Each structure stands twice: as structure tokens, then as C-alpha cells.
Amino acid sequence: MDRREHPQDNSYVRSLIFHKKGIDKILEKVGEETTELIIAAKNQTAGTGKRSETIYEASDLIFHILVLLAQCDITWEDIETEMASRRK
Q1: Dihedral of CA 74/78/83/87: which sign?
Q2: CB–CB of 1/70 below 8 Å?
Q3: Is residue 26 within 8 Å of 71, Cβ to Cβ?
Q4: For residue 9, is pLDDT > 80?
Q5: Which DSSP symbol is given to 27?
Q6: Which has more confidence, 6 or 78?
Q7: Are 61 and 37 in contact (CB under 8 A)?
Q8: How far apart are CA 24 and CA 22, in angstroms?
Q9: Staple partner for 40: which of 3, 30, 54, 75, CB 3.0–4.6 Å?
Q10: Which residues contact 36 (CB under 8 A, 6 or more apart)?
Q11: How far apart are CA 88 and CA 51, in angstroms?
Q12: Could you tell me the CA-to-CA distances from 81 to 9, 51, 87 in Å, in that order?
């Protein structure tokens, strides 16, 4: 949220949020990182990949999801509230 409201030159987050493709660029990255996480997890469970690769790809996906949420004006607190409502 801070990077969106206070963009800094040469910021990767800024390049995503203000990309000429608009939100499509962020969505592409979420899709790409999702695929990479799926492959890493599959390789790890098959014994051909490393746990560290799955962690790395999960971190990339979570990062890009957070950028997407910020672009949609959704806070982490909004997500926590939704998750808590599902426990009822």
C-alpha cells in the first residue's frame, strides 16, 4: 500500500502497479508464480526438488498476491476478517 501511495523510482512494486498493462501485469505475475509454486511443490513431493525451492516460490506468490490486494484496495486485515468469519 505504501509503495502504491508513495511510488519510488526503480521500484519493482511501482513497475507492477503503474504498468501500461494495468492490473493485467499483476495478474500475469500471480499466474506465473502460482505455476512455479505448483511445479516446485510437485518436484519436492516427488523427491526431485528441494523444500527451499518450494519456500522460495511460495514467497514469490505471496508477495505478488499482496501487490494485487493493494491494487484492489484490500488490506491484510480484510483477509483476516474474512478468514475469521469462516470459523463460525
Answers
A1: negative
A2: yes
A3: yes
A4: yes
A5: H
A6: 78
A7: yes
A8: 5
A9: 54
A10: 57, 60, 61
A11: 34
A12: 33, 30, 10
Q: Which domains does the chain have, with CATH numbers?
A: 2-85 (1.10.287.1080)
Of 7-16, 17-26, 66-75, the poorest mean pLDDT is in 7-16
Q: Which pLDDT tens digit goes with each residue over 26-79? A: 999 999 999 999 999 999 999 999 999 999 999 999 999 999 999 999 999 999
CA distance readout (Å), 52 to 41, 42, 49, 62: 10, 13, 9, 15
Tell which residue, 14, 64, 10, 68, has the closest CA to residue 35. Answer: 64
Q: How far apart are CA 31 and CA 77, in angstroms?
A: 23
**Cell numbers linked to 77:** 486485515
Residue 8, classed as helix, strand or coil, is: coil
Task: Name the amino acid, one letter, at 83.
Answer: M
Q: Hunting for cell 494485487 — which residue is that?
A: 68
For the record, the C-alpha cell of 47 comes out as 523427491
